[in-house]
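Posted in: Structural Biology > Protein-Ligand Complexes

Title: Requesting predicted complex, N-carbamoyl-L-aspartate in pocket

I'd be grateful if someone could produce the 3D structure tokens for the following input. Sequence and ligand are given below.
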Amino acid sequence: MNTLKSITIRRPDDWHVHLRDGAMLDAVVGYTARQFGRAIVMPNLAPPVTTIAQASDYRRRIITAVGKGISFKPLMTCYLTDQADPAEISRGFQEGVFSAVKLYPAGATTNSASGVTNMAIVSGVLEVMQEIGMPLLVHGEVTDPDIDIFDREAVFIERVLAPMLTDFPALKVVFEHITTSQAVAFVRSQGPRLGATITAHHLLIDRNDMFRGGIRPHLYCLPVAKRQGHRLALLEAATSGEINFFLGTDSAPHSTTAKESACGCAGIFSAPTAMELYAHAFAQAGALEKLESFASLNGPDFYGLPVNEETITLVREDWNASSGISVDDDTEVLPFMAGETLEWKMVD
Ligand code: NCD
Ligand code: ZN
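-- Reply #1 --
Done. Output follows.
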């Protein structure tokens, strides 16, 4: 039983977030910038961010949307396609524009149509990244329609990830938003060059929650939530303090109309209360003292960056998380656990 009333930790970073663009960017970025010092920004815009020019323009739009007086550093990523140019990618890394490359298997998730169709096609790029120490961030699900959606991550480990790590023994890789006990075990078997991000929602919900009393489209994301046993394995990994595991919200806003539809899209928007959600999960596991390593230390260690100097404080206090966020006149986004009681609150 954890009786802590408040906890102060170094300012955390979000190692996996979708900030979108335009009015949606304006509406959501402040939530991430309020809580986190830095964030790895996903490149799955339409069209995807594949060039240095696109990434630096996007970075400028993010900084403008954050506004003055808030210290927040967006770290940009390059969307890997079959046509990727190794020279552009390594130049972007050397110039400090790209922090990493993101691999989406083509068709695996939202805006992944331009993703990689066959790993052999991008081996030249991976070769260069291995040489220069540039991390590859992986959406780890196979797209084979014959594989059950709940097995796609476990099968990805066998078919794609393990062979890739063997072929590129020095490539730094992050297995993004892991959802299974198989992923936890695999990450542990690989040493420090393989990291893994874990979302708050995968620590808090299992697949039954998507169907609690009816179908709940706001709890649908990819990789989809798995059985309870997998959730517990993730919680154990996140609270272990082991350096491979670090925070990545995968906050992925979509309008309520896109979510509440006959074919609702994948993505959970957790940015407004991200740290509160993680604190809730860690407190439930009696492991709040491990929150700082997971949220603020292990990620910088993997990326070779200094930890943040400032701190944040969370206090134990029941409060009602806000409901819908307005993007424009007819667009609203509903955050994860909107309207529900949260037990921890970040104070400014
Ligand atoms: C993400 C999105 O909406 O961009 N959706 C999601 O369910 N996580 C894409 C992704 O990270 O898979
Ligand atoms: Zn994502």
